[in-house]
Design goal:
- The complex is a heterodimer of chains A (173) and B (177).
- Chain A is an alpha+beta fold and 173 residues long.
- Chain A has 1 helix and 9 strands, in the order αβββββββββ.
- Chain A has one domain: Immunoglobulin-like (Sandwich).
- In chain A, strands 1, 2, 5 and 6 form a 4-stranded antiparallel β-sheet that branches. A 4-stranded antiparallel β-sheet of chain A has the order 4-3-7-9.
- Chain A is elongated and about 85 Å long.
- Chain B folds into 2 domains: 2-44 and 150-174; 50-146, Umud Fragment, subunit A (Ribbon).
- In chain B, helix 3 (149-156) crosses helix 4.
- Chain B contains 4 helices and 6 strands.
- Chain B has a 6-stranded antiparallel β-sheet.
- Chain B has 177 residues and is of the alpha+beta class.
- The chains are: A alpha+beta (173), B alpha+beta (177).
């Protein structure tokens, strides 16, 4: 009646069910935590542009900018027991007559540990700021910090914080 | 292997009504799996609500064999979201993060894998600079580690798939209520 196969089947089914319930519970408990993680007031950050290293028009007519800036951030409150990593990136966001919203990532960083979630550093743009046309001269650009909390299991949480804005020079370098 | 002999014995002594019951229950299993899949498609709005990560280009966030749950809504896609997209001429969809986004009436998107040095222009079709909305299959909202290994193993070693299906079928047919 209770053959080997029957027992094996029951054992497998039960353990899979248990795992599924655990994963579900982890996500459910995260839901209580996400208002905190998603609220910008818990994240401390600032960024200032120090220098425009490069500002030119490419051969295809697209403006290209390289920057040096200071970043300081503290995303420690985002870490919980179910956090595998926090992906942070600094995006330049601006408006042009043709495009309602341009978001371009300038610098990103993966934080794996709560101890490394608070730092200050001077960086150059990892990825150049390239426009789709030549609209960048004198343009106001917002620097926005985005973060993406990636869990060990469950729901992923994203949010952003406006840090500062600056104006690009009127002339190419 | 006493249970195997028992199983074979029970197949021999099956009655027609019993066989029909088993066929119906087998059909129920297949159809309920189909219902769940199609239902998920309706709820999430994505043509493929669950995907398995196949490459290490998003490590350490996503590893090979992890499962992602996708959602596709009418909300515009923003930088920082992780999307699954199809490139013309490539069969396997790619999971990467939105790196740049330009709103030109229709949204232009450039993606990049967290673990890759450069953006994805080299992966796109020849001469393609941007992804548009119709390339996107969905954005990743949920994450489940390791479970996708089951499908990876089954696709790479089909013999295991056939063994598993055979064993399950035998179990369903020979099981006594």
């Amino acid at each position: 009646m209770h053959s080997f196969a029957y027992r094996l089947n029951t054992l497998l089914t039960f353990s899979l069910l248990l795992l599924a319930v655990l994963c579900g519970a982890a996500s459910f408990l995260d839901a209580f935590n996400s208002p905190l993680a998603a609220s910008s007031s818990h994240v401390q950050a600032s960024a200032q542009v120090l220098k425009v290293n490069r500002f030119r028009r490419q051969l295809n007519g697209a403006d290209e900018v390289g920057l040096t800036f200071n970043v300081s951030l503290d995303v420690q409150p985002l870490f919980t027991w179910n956090t595998k990593q926090v992906f942070v990136f600094l995006a330049a966001e601006y408006e042009t007559p043709k495009n309602a919203l341009n978001q371009i990532s300038l610098w990103d960083h993966i934080i794996l540990d709560k101890d490394q979630a608070k730092f200050q550093t001077k960086v150059t743009t990892k990825y150049p700021l390239i426009d789709q046309g030549s609209n960048l001269r004198g343009r106001k650009v917002d620097l926005i910090l985005h973060w993406h909390v990636m869990p060990k299991t469950g729901r992923m949480i994203r949010d952003k914080l406006h840090l500062s804005d600056f104006h690009l020079p009127e002339a190419y370098t | 292997m006493g249970w195997l002999a028992d199983s074979l014995d029970s197949i021999r002594t099956l009655q027609i009504r019993h066989v029909l019951t088993q066929v119906v229950s087998l059909g129920m299993i297949v159809t309920s799996a189909l219902i769940i899949w199609k239902g998920l498609m309706c709820v999430t709005g994505s043509e493929s609500p669950v995907v398995v990560v196949l490459s290490g280009s998003m490590e350490p966030g996503f590893k090979r064999g992890d499962i992602l749950f996708l959602h596709m809504s009418t909300d515009p896609i923003r930088a920082g979201e992780i999307v699954v997209f199809n490139v013309d001429g490539r069969e396997i969809p790619i999971v990467h993060r939105v790196h740049e986004r330009q709103d030109t009436g229709e949204v232009d998107i450039l993606t990049k894998g967290d673990n890759n040095f450069g953006d994805d222009r080299l992966l796109y079709a020849h001469g393609q600079l941007w992804l548009q909305r119709h390339h996107i299959m969905g954005r990743a909202v949920g994450f489940l580690p390791y479970v996708g290994w089951v499908t990876i193993i089954m696709t790479e070693k089909p013999i295991i798939k056939y063994l598993l299906i055979g064993a399950l079928g035998l179990l369903v047919i020979t099981s006594k209520e």
